[in-house]
Amino acid sequence: MRIHSLTLENFRGVERLELRDLPETGVIVIHGDNEQGKSTILDALDAVLNEKHGGRSRAVKAWQPVGRDDSPTVTLHATVGPVTFTIRKNWLRAPKAELRITAPQRGDYTGREAEDQLEEILSRHLDRELARTLFLRQDDLGDGIAAVGISSVTRALDGADDAESSGTEDTALSAAVEKEYERYFTAGGQARLELKEAREAFESAQTDQETAAAENAELAGHVDRFDRVTERQAQALADLPGAEAEEQELAERARVAAEAEERAGVLRRELQLATEALERAESAVTQRATLAAAVTDAEELLAERRAGLEAAQEEAGREATQLQELGERRTAAVQAQKDAAARLRTARRELRLVTDASRRADLTTQLASVRELNERIAQLRTATAGREITAADVDAVEEATTELTLARRLRAGAAARLEFTGPAGETLTVDGTELTLGDEPVSVELSDGTALLIGGITARYRAGHTAETGTDPVAAAEQTLTALLEELDLPDLAAVREAHDVHRRATEDLAALLRERTSLLGGAEEEQLVAELARLEEELADEDLPDLDVDAATRAVEEAEDAGEEAGRLLAEIDEALAPWQQRRAENALTALNVRIEAAEESLRQAQSALDSALAGASDEALGEAVREATRAREEALAQSRAADEEVAAADPQLAADLHEGAVVRLRSLHETVARSREDLAGLRSYIEQAQGAAERLDKAESALEAARHRLDSVTRRAEAVQLLRETLQRHRAEARARYARPFAEQLTLLARPVFGTDVEFTLSDQLEVSQRSDADGTVPLADLSGGAKEQLAILTRFAIAHLTSRESEDGQVPVPVIIDDALGSTDPTRLQRMSTLFSRMGDSGQVIVLTCVPQRYERVGGRTEYAIEDLKSSTTLL
Predict the structure, then answer these.
(1) Of the ranges 376-385, 511-520, 737-746, which one carries the lowest mean pLDDT score?
(2) Where are the transmembrane segments (predicted)?
(3) Which terminus in the chain has less CB density within 10 A, N or C?
């Protein structure tokens, strides 16, 4: 397919757009701002080829221009295969279709016949799936392409594999198999229609048979259970009298054992009380001995602590003497340090005053020099103010003066002249200028209109018809020179040169003064130095300046600092010697010893008081008698408790209680069995009566199940047969498509290497859709690529398809144009440059139409043709 021209009228927002005389090969760039109608061109092309003129769908109605009652119209002049035609379609308000065929045979058609003829041409000579693929819209930039679904590509790839390839797939057989397969299965392989109904009928019959079998089995179970329940009820009624007698006997034995257990418990509590009384008597004897020992220990501790009191007192006195002596020395050292600090503050203040006074003198001198330079700079700036006479101005005046001199000389050599002689002193007027005669003749150039005034007579020279007419070169040169001098406000060339030299010298002097001023300021701002001088003047106004220079004041500071450091070192030495004594270890030790002696005396008083109080309450003999009496009482209680425990062991109350509980449980269970059997038998009688006829229902269900099984087997055999045939066809088709992948991948890789690098490879699906890109950095799925890489790959894939299909065409060109709508917006400059080479190569074998708002992206594409969208909308198309 070759597009020769395309015209849009009243199509969406485009009132009229005409694209004509397109080259048959090469890159065609149509550019313009957004929303100017570039994408509409692609929509209009699709509409004129595929949309019936009578269509009124929502998509067709969207073509109606807003605010105008005009019919959307598209006219296409193109060649498809051997047929060259022009198709014109109107939609909506005045729908019509007109087709004119100009080759290979002429013909004109309208209406439905025109669309039928167009459909015949397109069906026979155009691969529409290839056209849809190569018409790349903005929304398709990130999507993959299933190339195997394009018949032109399939033929190209099949032919590229080997000589034994068939060239096409048996689509009729595949369609018939698919139709038969869809009779039994869905696209996902699930059963449907006849197979599903057969399976459901079998499952329903199987369910009915299982239900009938379960009902029949349930009836047999109810009969068996009725017999077992009857037998269990009779047995329970026979066991009831013996169980009741056993329960009464075991209840009496459990009562006797419980009374023995209760008596033994009372005696055990009496034994516990006797044991506790004995322990209290023995504890009183032990406590009395502890109190006596505490008095002895307190006396020994007090004597031990009083023995070291004298030595501690002597050590504390020596410590106090050392603290007094070192404290006096430290006080003297602190005073010396304070005197040195005061001396240092005085010296530093005098140094600051002397330094500030010196700085004030320096600033005064520096700023005086700066002010002098400022005055000179101001004078030079005044001198250079106004219009600057540049070297270009001098050159222009020199050139105008030279031109005037040359014009005058040329005119003097070529013009007619009139010479006057006469008495010296006589005058005449030429063009208003008075001339005085002398000894030499006066020569006057004559030009058309020259006026001579001699006395009262005026003569005016008129050139003949053969004389040259036009602008006077001399007058023109004079006018140019005069205009330049008036602009510069100077009388002549010498004045211009002098003004230029004066301005240049003044500019150089000004630059030198500015450099000198910058050096004098030393990188500071003049205002900063003025502010600093003002501050120093204010601070030193009321100060008595010392009679010192900066060096003497600096030495005084250093001497004061040395004296302060010496006083500090002496104070540090005294503090170091004083630190151990300031801990007052001897004084603290004496204080602690006195506190411990007082505590020992108090402990002795407390121990003695406690012992005296205990002796006053009971004597040692009374405590011993109490222990003996408590021992006798405990022995008697122990004997009685042991006898009671033996009686309990013989009766075994727990066993007796457990045996009685078992008898009670058995008696209760027998009563429950009788009652539950009576209820179960009543229910089973009802079940048995309701289940009559279960065997007959089971026979009917088994017959229906066997019939459903036969039908399912028959349908399943047919479904499995078509499934096997379909799988076999798909396997062979997959093998064929696997052969297609190699030449397609080779073509895609060949185009992609200049963009993605020489090590790039692609993974293709069985539909020849790119799924992964691999290079030295790894493998990345298509969905994870950047936006720029996706749009580059979308274009490269279509270029690969175009190259493959061009090999199958008779003229070696791509069967349909490649149309790309506003791509490469996310592509970096380097890859954009490389993509341009591929566009150039693609243009060698077919039409490549690019719709873009940034034509600069395609500046490197060779042999391109550019159209501005605004020009295409005008009445005269730029070619």
Answers:
(1) 737-746
(2) none
(3) C
366 shares a domain with 289: no
514 within a domain of the structure (yes/no): no
Residues 780 and 637 in one domain: no
Are 188 and 200 in contact by the 8 Å Cβ rule? The answer is no
**How many folded domains does the chain comprise?**
4
Tokens linked to 7:
């015209």
Non-local CB neighbours of 156 within 8 Å, separated by 6+ positions: 804, 805, 807, 808
**What tens digit of pLDDT does each residue of 521-542 get?**
878 888 888 888 888 888 888 8
Structural contact between residues 8 and 91, judged by C-beta atoms closer than 8 angstroms: no
Residue 589 located in a structural domain: no
Q: What 8-state DSSP symbol labels residue 191?
A: B
Taking a C-beta distance cutoff of 8 angstroms, is the pair 816, 125 a contact? no
Residues 143, 224 within the same domain: no
The residues, any chain, with a CB within 8 Å of residue 628's CB and separated by 6 or more, are none
Q: Write the CB contacts of 78 (distance below 8 Å, at least 6 apart in sequence).
A: 1, 2, 3, 4, 84, 85, 86, 87
Q: In this predicted model, what pLDDT tens digit does every residue of 48-95 receive, in sequence order?
A: 999 999 999 999 999 999 888 899 999 999 999 899 999 999 999 889
Do 395 and 263 fall into the same domain? no
The full 3-state SS of 652-693, as one line of letters, equals CHHHHHHHHHHHHHHHHHHHHHHHHHHHHHHHHHHHHHHCCC
Domain that holds residue 438: 391-489
| pTM of the predicted protein model | 0.41
Quick one: 167 and 273 in the same domain?
A: no
